[in-house]
Amino acid sequence: MLLGGGGVLSLRVVERVVAQGELIGRTIQRMAAQIAESFVEGSWVLVGIQARGYAFAQRLQKALEELLGRAVPLGGLDVTFYRDDIGRSAQLKVPHPSQLPFSVEGTSIWLIDDVLWTGRTVRAALEALRDLGRPARVRLAVLVDRRGHRELPIAPDCVGYSIDTTPQEKVLVSIDNDPPMILVRYG
Amino acid sequence: MAKRDLVGIRELSSETIHLLYELADRFWGVLETPTRKVPALAGKAVGLLFFESSTRTRWSFDLAAKRLGADTVAFSAAGSSLDKGESLLDTAKNLLAMGLDAIVVRHRVVGTAHFLAQRLPVPVINAGDGTHEHPTQALLDTYTLRRHFGRVEGLTLTIVGDLFHSRVALSHLHLAPKVGLRLRLCAPPSLVPPLWYGLGWPIYHEVEKAVRGADAILVLRMQRERMQRPAIASWEEYARFYQVRPEHLASGQVLLHPGPINWGVELDGRLIDWPHNRILDQVQAGVAIRMAVLYWALGAS
Predict the structure, then answer these.
(1) What predicted TM-score, i.e. pTM, was given to this entire model?
(2) What is the dotted CATH code of the domain comprising A18-186?
(3) For residues B215 and B174, is the Cβ–Cβ distance under 8 A?
(4) Distances (CA, A) of A153 to A110, B13, B290, B291
(5) Considering its fold, how many domains does chain B have in total?
(6) CB contact under 8 A, B40 and A94
(7) Does pLDDT of B101 surpass 60?
(8) Which chain A residues have any C-beta within 8 angstroms of a chain B C-beta?
(9) Could you list the residue range(s) of the whole structural domain that residue B69 is in?
(10) Pairing of strands A158-163, A169-174
């Protein structure tokens, strides 16, 4: 038995680094370049899922605006009230404000989140968007894709890191720290 | 986790009250989206047990539940099996057996919500129990002030009217110290519960003095139906000395009333046009606050 049984190993925190430092900035540049390609087909807005997806979307917005040389609108969408696990967890989920400085109706949207895992958050976000109007199209960009754990038929269009994880692991994204870091932690 | 009842403000912590304000802010945002609803409580059913007449509170809870995607079952005492002698508890249990996830109750008897909360396995929310508490009203009054002033802490609220029979006033007495609100109370001596003189809030018998310098004035309805003995000489006499009139108010003072209003008794009809009349804002705040309360009660297992 690796863990449990009262051995010294049971206290060990197992961590591995997915990416850190300058690499993360380069990855955001690459994702921005990929998203910029879509602007050939017309104009898009960014919608970050509150709260960490929005923080990541702010970074993407900055990189994208530098590439395109013009402003790209960004909104923050809270999906708490659209989750399918309300009332199942002992913790009451308190939402952040949603703030979309544009109409969703007929708009082309890049939906942005930090980590894609089961796909349930993205499903909630699609439903939340639908209540605000009928977008022309929605694409999905995520910094980290925990591949293989999808519980719904949802796939990203733009990915920073595609990684293998076990269900017991947590992915920790802290891109605004110095140095920026993406970790996988066991337990 | 223990189930979450809202029997009175007395049982709520300051943290919970601020959480409810914060949730109400989110729901206020929801009420301004095109669909005005979210599916947060989809699949849940809320029973509305109103044994006393109500317009605002009942509609407000009904709408709040529906805006959260929940179903509501409305029950009114008139024409029910209570006429055949069924007890309150049996009635409530039978309604629960139909599959309700929460109960909102209003009853003329003090302690009804507490009684049901102790005995039912689902959250019970007090929509007014006799002259005891009306917690969501005090929450929505202060939430209206929070939206107007950007804060509640440090504000002075004058409550004018029938303090003796007012569950709204009692809920405010419990709420004020938890949110840093300063109270002033104003009523004829016959309508001030004697114990209230010892609470530390100033008590006035003159409207002019009571409202001077206050940030907001909450005018209470004269509760004719609860007065078992005449507490005032006449409505005219009450109106002469305790009616709130435009000349009492200074610019910037916010006017609140929980409704229904007896114009010409506790409020001068000219105050309909008072620039800071926030009486109808209270109604929208009521839906947002009740959404917050229902989500708080049912949003965690």
Answers:
(1) 0.92
(2) 3.40.50.2020
(3) no
(4) 18, 43, 36, 32
(5) 2
(6) no
(7) yes
(8) 78, 80-82, 86-95, 97-98, 127-128, 131-133
(9) 9-132+283-298
(10) unpaired
